[in-house]
Design a protein that fits this description.
Elements lengths: L1 H32 L4 H19 L5 H8 L14 H26 L5
Helix pairs in contact: 1-2, 1-3, 1-4
Length: 114
Amino acid sequence: MPRRRLTLVRLAHDVVFVVMTAATLVVLYAGLTGARGPWLSVALALIITEIVVFVSFGMRCPLAILAVQYGAENGHAFEVVLSPRVSRAAFLTVDTIGAVGLTLLAARWTGLFG
């Protein structure tokens, strides 16, 4: 049973990663083009929620913490689709893209850009 739960945690983590990557790309697109709409609001809400969750859990993913409870080594919760090495690179890349997107969006909203 713990093995099955670990697989479900990892699968949930992969789904969250895909959704958050899509939200990040929406923010980047809006930052680059000035596009607005309901998807931007959803994307921003998701990103803000993710930031709050990470800060609340001491900058650790709560799904990784849960994965350790179910037997994952080193707290890895992302090995269903991506290997740990590829996952770390993907997270760094998505975080960087998100920071650029949020910066561009803030610059647009404050009138510094576009």
